[in-house]
Design brief:
By secondary structure, the protein is an alpha/beta fold. The protein has two domains: about 190 residues, Glycogen Phosphorylase B (Rossmann fold, 3-Layer(aba) Sandwich); about 170 residues, Glycogen Phosphorylase B (Rossmann fold, 3-Layer(aba) Sandwich), CATH 3.40.50. Helix content is about 40%, strand content about 15%. It is built from 15 helices and 15 strands. The strands form three sheets. It has a seven-stranded parallel beta sheet with strand order 3-2-1-4-5-6-7, sandwiched between helices. Helix 6 links the parallel strand 6 and strand 7. Helix 8 crosses helix 13, helix 11 crosses helix 14 and helix 13 packs across helix 14.
Length: about 375
C-alpha cells in the first residue's frame, strides 16, 4: 500500500499541525519496520521550507520526500499537490483539513478540531470562512475522516451529519523524546531566555487558549509560605507560542506583568521546557485533543487543564481539571498543583502512566489498519 502525505505544514512553525505530522511519520517508520507488517510505501509531499526537516526522519526508512516548491497560498498549493499525486499514483492521500480540488486517489482528511465552526469568533472573518468552506468540502469528499478524539468525532457529526459513517477516531501519540530526564536542559532554557522557577503555558497566543484568564489567575496566586531556607520565590509565568490575531493588547499586558514570552519553540527545546516547569497550565476553551498536557505528563510535570471539550478525554484522572472560564477556580487549581507536595507526587505518577498509553506507533498502526481494511470504521 502506497500512502502519500501532505507534509506542507512542516517547516512553517505550524505548532500542533507540525508536531502531529512529525509524530505520524515517526510512527509509520516504526510500524512499517515491524515483522509481519504488510509493505507500506510512504511519500511525503513537502513545501520547500519543510524538506530539510522531513528528510532526516524519512529517508532512513526508505520514505520518499518530494519537494513541491515554495509554499503558496491556497488554492494554488493544493493544485500542485494534485499534479504530484497524478505522478505518484498512491493508494491513499492523507491531508490535514484540506484536500486538493481534484484528488486522483482515495483520500483521508485529518481533522484536529472544528473550532472555526463551533467558535468562529475566535478567528478573523476571512480565515473562519475559508476554513469552513474548504474543510467542509474535504469532509464531504474524503473516503475516511480521521478525528483525533471522540469529542472531535461528535463535533464532526454535529456539523456534518452525513460524514458519521466514515469517521475514524485515531488518537495522537507522545514521542519518546518527552521523558523525565534532565540532560542538557539548562542549555535549552538559556537559548530560550527562560528563568526558573516558572509555570508553563504552551500554544499560540490566541483567544481559545484562554491566556487572559490564566494571567488573571497567576496574578492571584498566594505568596508561598516561608521555609527554613527562606521564602520560596513565586514562579514566573512563561508562554511558549506565536502571537496570533488580535493578541497585541494581551501581549502588552502580559509583558507589563512580567510574563516570559519565548515565541515559537523549536521541537528540540520543548521537552526541556516541559521538564523544568513547576507545572503546565493549559486552560484552553476548545481543543480537538490537547497534546501539550500529555507531553508534559510524559516529562513528569504536573498539569492543570480545562474540564471541557476533549481535554478530560486526553488527561483522564492524571491532571487537575477546572472550569476554564472561572478565574478563581483556575487560581485555586494552579495553587494546588504548585504548592501541594503530595498532590504533585501523585500527579507525576499518574501522568507518566497516562502518557505511556499514547504512542505514535499505535497511532500509525491504527490508521494503516483502517486503510488496509477498507471497511467502515465505527
Amino acid at each position: 500500500m502506497h500512502l502519500a502525505i501532505n507534509a506542507s505544514d512542516l517547516g512553517r512553525s505550524r505548532g500542533g499541525n507540525e508536531s502531529y505530522l512529525l509524530g505520524l511519520i515517526a510512527g509509520l517508520a516504526a510500524v512499517t519496520g515491524q515483522a509481519g507488517q504488510s509493505a507500506v510505501r510512504v511519500s511525503l509531499i513537502a513545501a520547500h521550507e519543510g524538506v530539510d526537516l522531513a528528510r532526516p526522519i524519512a529517508e532512513p526508512h526508505g520514505f520518499d520526500v518530494i519537494d513541491a516548491g515554495p509554499y503558496r497560498r491556497l488554492p494554488f498549493f493544493l493544485w500542485r499537490q494534485t499534479a504530484i499525486l497524478r505522478r505518484l499514483r498512491p493508494d491513499w492521500y492523507i491531508s490535514t483539513f484540506f484536500l486538493p480540488p481534484v484528488t486522483p486517489c482515495r483520500a483521508v482528511v485529518l481533522i484536529h478540531d472544528l473550532s472555526f465552526r463551533a467558535h468562529p469568533d475566535y478567528y478573523p472573518l476571512s480565515i473562519a470562512a475559508y476554513m469552513r468552506l474548504l474543510t467542509g468540502q474535504a469532509i464531504r469528499r474524503a473516503e475516511v475522516v480521521v478525528a483525533l478524539s471522540e469529542f472531535t468525532r461528535g463535533e464532526i457529526v454535529r456539523f456534518y451529519p452525513g460524514a458519521g459513517a466514515k469517521v475514524a477516531v485515531v488518537y495522537p501519540g507522545v514521542g519518546a523524546e518527552f521523558r523525565p530526564d534532565t540532560e542538557e536542559d539548562s542549555r535549552a532554557l538559556s537559548a530560550l531566555g527562560v528563568r526558573q522557577p516558572y509555570v508553563l503555558a504552551v500554544g499560540n497566543i490566541h483567544p481559545r487558549k484562554n491566556l487572559g484568564r490564566l494571567l488573571d489567575a497567576w496574578l492571584r496566586l498566594p505568596v508561598p509560605a516561608s521555609t527554613g531556607d527562606g521564602s520560596l520565590p513565586a514562579p514566573a509565568l512563561t508562554w511558549a507560542g506565536l502571537d496570533r490575531w488580535g493578541s497585541g493588547e494581551l501581549i502588552n499586558r502580559a509583558l507589563g506583568a512580567g510574563v516570559q514570552l519565548t515565541g515559537f519553540v523549536p521541537a528540540a527545546y520543548l521537552p526541556a521546557l516541559y521538564r523544568q516547569a513547576e507545572a503546565l497550565a493549559y486552560p484552553s476553551l476548545y481543543e480537538g485533543f490537547g497534546l501539550p498536557p500529555l507531553e508534559a505528563m510524559a516529562c513528569g510535570t504536573p498539569v492543570l487543564t480545562s474540564n471541557t471539550t476533549s481535554l478530560p478525554e486526553a488527561v483522564g484522572d492524571a491532571a487537575v481539571t477546572v472550569d476554564p472560564t472561572d478565574v478563581e477556580a483556575l487560581a485555586e487549581g494552579l495553587a494546588r498543583v504548585l504548592f501541594d507536595g503530595a498532590l504533585r507526587r501523585d500527579l507525576r505518577v499518574r501522568g507518566l502512566a497516562r502518557a505511556a498509553e499514547f504512542r505514535w506507533e499505535r497511532t500509525a498502526a491504527r490508521l494503516v489498519g483502517r486503510l488496509e481494511s477498507g471497511a467502515p470504521y465505527a
